[in-house]
Amino acid sequence: MAATGDYIISGGSEGKARLNILSAILQDPTRALLEANGLTTGTFFLDAGCGGGNVARMAAAIAGSNGKVTAIDFDSDIIALNRKEAAGIGQPDFLAMSAYEIDYHNIYDIAYSRFLFSHLTAPERVLANMIRSVKPGGRIVVEDVQFSGHFCYPASTAFDQYVRLYIALAQLRGQDPEIGPRIYRLFLAAGLSDINFDVIQPAFSHGEGKWMAYLTLDRIKEQVISEQLSDEPAVRLLLQQLETFTREEHSIISLPRIFRVSGTRS
Q: In the predicted model, is pLDDT for residue 142 greater than 90?
């Protein structure tokens, strides 16, 4: 999640429920990505912008009692919910903190974020914080989106309008919902070595994942209206149209294109 109050997707318990669906979709590919970058027993792991805490809990289960997992998010309500779910030994240390405030030095083996950079106005600052937090030889792993890379089938004007509204709202707040392809160059500019990337894009004809577009529009609707990108009747109609399209038995809806970039601190 974002590191400032400019985060455009409403949080709280409903926001966490949306994040839980997203995390369930991405659990297996994210686990494989992190294990390929060194997540194992005894790993010290930092999750910047942890959202619903699902990745942090997975990392804690892998790292075990000899490891350490610190998970931060600016949303104190979601952090409180995470703490309730994670009570007990061997759980992540959940902290309410902005990613801009990360001030760890040479502690972690891996510093990770997912869907954080696209919500930041200064991602370079947060990347620098993450790099300082890892030991020399530690890995930085970032997953983030190119939001315009969504697709659906058949064509849907409601779906296309949702994508346009999300991008317009994020850009109005000084954020970059298209940052995915740019992360590779951010890593280069930051002096990281052994940089790798790949791209994934889940898509759905049924199931909870198919509802992510509808759920996201529902969570940004108030800010779309407050920023006068649309009005309440138009947004309500758009939600109805997107719901109808999502319910179509043979329609296909994707997540955004997701870039996954990793590099090593020298």
A: yes
Domains and CATH numbers, the chain: 12-264 (3.40.50.150)
Q: Which of 24, 28, 87 has the alpha carbon at shortest distance from 51?
A: 24
| pLDDT band for position 20 (cuts 50, 70, 90) | confident
More confidently predicted of 21 and 45: 45
Q: Following CA atoms 241, 242, 248, 254 in sequence, which dihedral angle do they give, to the nearest 10 degrees? A: 160
* pLDDT, average across residues 79-107: 89
Q: Which long-range contacts (CB under 8 A, 24 or more apart) does 29-38 make?
A: 29/200, 30/55, 30/58, 30/114, 30/143, 31/58, 31/62, 33/141, 33/143, 33/260, 33/262, 34/59, 34/62, 34/110, 34/112, 34/141, 35/62, 37/110, 37/139, 37/141, 37/262, 38/109, 38/110, 38/139
